Amino acid sequence: MAEQTQIRIDYGRDIEREIAHLQESIAQHTSLVSRYPSRWLALSLLMGDEEIHSRVKELVGEKNEILQQVQESVERLRGIYGEELEIVIADRRYGFINGLVREVVERAPGERRTLSDKLDRIVTHRVLGIPIFLVAMWLVFKMTTEIPGPYMDWLDSLISGPVARWLVTLLRFMGLGGSWVESLLVDGVLAGVGGVLVFTPVLFSLYFFLALLEDSGYMARAAFVMDRLMRALGLHGKSFLPMLLGFGCTVPAIYATRTLENQKDRVLTGLLAPMMSCGARLPVYTVFAVAFMGRYAGRFIFALYLLGIIWAILTGLLLRRTLFKAERAAPFILELPPYRLPTLRGILIHIWERSSLFFKKASTIIVAVSIVLWLLLNLPWGVGDPQDSLFGKASSAVAPLLAPAGFGRWEATGALMTGFLAKEVVVGTLSQVYLGEESEPPEASSSILQDLQEIGVGFWEATIETCRELINLIPGVHLGGEGDEQEGEDTALVQALRRDFTPLEAAAFCVFVLLYVPCAVTVAAQRQEYGTRWALFSVLYQVLLAWIMSVLVYQGGKLLHLG
Amino acid sequence: MMPLSMVASGETVRLIAVRGGRGICFRLAELGLVPGATFQVIQGSGQGPLILAFGETRLALGRGMAHKIYVESFMRGGQECQNN
User: Fold this and answer.
1) Chain A contacts of B31, Cβ < 8 Å?
2) What is the CATH code of the structural domain delimited by A3-104?
3) Buried b (16+ CB within 10 A) or exposed e, A466-501
């Protein structure tokens, strides 16, 4: 501890006297001194910090001279200053900060701020604000669904081609060729984890744009612009930030509700955030959209996102009128930082923070799920038809519940069941269930050199394809590449899905995926933030809503003869 | 003296008092908005939240909160600071 560099603010003779007085009493208790700096503790107590008060009670007992002294000090000081102590202390602190800033900061005459203010005049404009915001959102959405397509194809061919070949070669070299270990690693882990890793480009670009919005300072403006709209829902402008983050990943969205001051606002926002379709759900929609929606794929996905938003709004209105009645949203106060040109470094750090969470999931939950799933699919040992396996039996038992929604078959049910753990595994489960048996062990013939060449050329082609799509983006609407280069697992899965689902069932399935529990980690986060009861409420509400909505979609579609 | 919500855009005002709970007072004080502080209203009258310029800081403030903050015009204003 560099003692001499510690900042010490002089709060004036009267307050300093009380602080010194309190510090003496605090010094008597080693349990306090060993935990907290005594000056800080004295100040916190004087400012009425409730948490510190209860900590002190815990450590030195309900009845002790310190708390009594604090009360006396506060009374005395209120007599002297005639106003709340925390305001006097804040005033002193700001005085100190202003002095310090004046001494050490040299600035060019406020240029960035004036430019920032000019931008704000347009971006936060009462009329223009919302259209600008909507255009920004639309662009982000377009970019994240269209740019990554070619890279996804490339990754897919990389995993099902060279990587699978290397793995098989390695296993044969170790004398494990054709054994159950090969089946576990190739059909289980590689199929499951690979199926998920293919979607990293989507997540990268989503996180890139979210980081761009955050780092440029626009996110705070978006909250400002949305405040009036959110208020109509009984929410808070600040609730908007967690919701927006929810499009990336629900877990940070839940934690972001901490920025709200009022516990009820936090819980309500945390109950709505899961309905913002997270990045992990996008792969599921993409596979089904590619399989069934043809040139309407983009619009289909957009409609799903919209459905999530609509249900968040309806749920918000509903809860404000029932469980959160008469709870007014806390006052809105938010700092608008100056606009900054985001640095590449900053954006990369943000992308890394978010995607490392994804990789952590991929390397833990998803590997575990893949292995367990492989086991359940192969037990009792040597089972031929996957439907007779343990997994098939368990899924078949639950499947009738989903029959009204059209996809009450064991494969789809099983994928949704594993999806409780993480939406990333839904596609993985589908590929394991549909393709696990079909995928023939890849030939281990080509040399490393050929493989590396293939990887490099593939990446280059993907980059060219992306550039072409970026240019395409300006007038047209269409998702993914031309579809001519797609080969391997993804198309095999798409074909399998086409055999097993009708388009209407596919739509109902996607609606279910959109609305039910995002992942186990989200539930854990909700439990940690809002308590077990709210977490359970959230799970029940979402499962029920997902079931009702997908049944409505399926039955409604059948009535309209869409099935 | 008038509520902040009545101040027109572009005017500079001095904060006199906050008629609100401890929570609001403290939250504002934390941001440096204590009685006597002067700031400019960048986006004011009308509906929806306000934007204040407070030194280098820009604050967005809900209208409900602005009703509870009393200010006086900085140009003509006197020196006395009262509080609730």
Assistant:
1) 333, 335
2) 1.10.287.1770
3) beebeeeeeeeeebbbeeeebebbbebbbebbeebb
